[in-house]
Amino acid sequence: DQQVKQNSPSLSVQEGRISILNCDYTNSMFDYFLWYKKYPAEGPTFLISISSIKDKNEDGRFTVFLNKSAKHLSLHIVPSQPGDSAVYFCAASAFNNDMRFGAGTRLTVKP
Amino acid sequence: DAGVIQSPRHEVTEMGQEVTLRCKPISGHDYLFWYRQTMMRGLELLIYFNNNVPIDDSGMPEDRFSAKMPNASFSTLKIQPSEPRDSAVYFCASSLFDRLSGYTFGSGTRLTVV
Fold this sequence. Notes:
The complex is a heterodimer. Chain A contains no helices and 11 strands. By secondary structure, chain A is mainly beta. Chain A is globular. The relative contact order of chain A is 0.34. The mean pLDDT of chain A is about 95. By secondary structure, chain B is an all-beta fold. In chain B, strand 5 (about 40-50) and strand 6 (about 55) form a beta hairpin. The mean pLDDT of chain B is about 95. The interface of A and B includes residues 36, 41 and 99 of A.
């Protein structure tokens, strides 16, 4: 049962434009949400997180938005750079420390 | 710190053989996680430990899979006997109990069972 869903397997954007990656979840007990980036032949690396008491968190070019009523979060990358090309995973956790991951979205940023 | 270290990076084995994957977490991290990545199911949590004690193994697919953490600096995931459907990339990750800081993942072990 996929509790965290990323419905877009891939996304392609032009360098300098905005990339928006989306994620939906079904478990209302989730209260922490994270995004990871993964390059080929490497493990996922932590990118940015947000707790359910907030609706926005920003870190440089990366912003995560959380809409609790819709059980939806998104990651905005502005401006997108070719080095951002990777697979992005959305993840969520409830009261404990184990995380559930989405299937990932492959982002390609074209020069 | 060298990060989370997994070995081997690649493993090719024949069906029916025993496979052991190894993980060294980051020193001081008290949580350790084993994930499996496949095309069909994405990243699945198999089992996790807190202070070397298994907390939740509900993701372990069947009795052929077992995991141990004999001390704070070492964990193993064993598959016996292995089957072709076990072919996947297996990741180990470690963390502190800081839910906003995420996990640190190793580079993974790509397992191929032929």
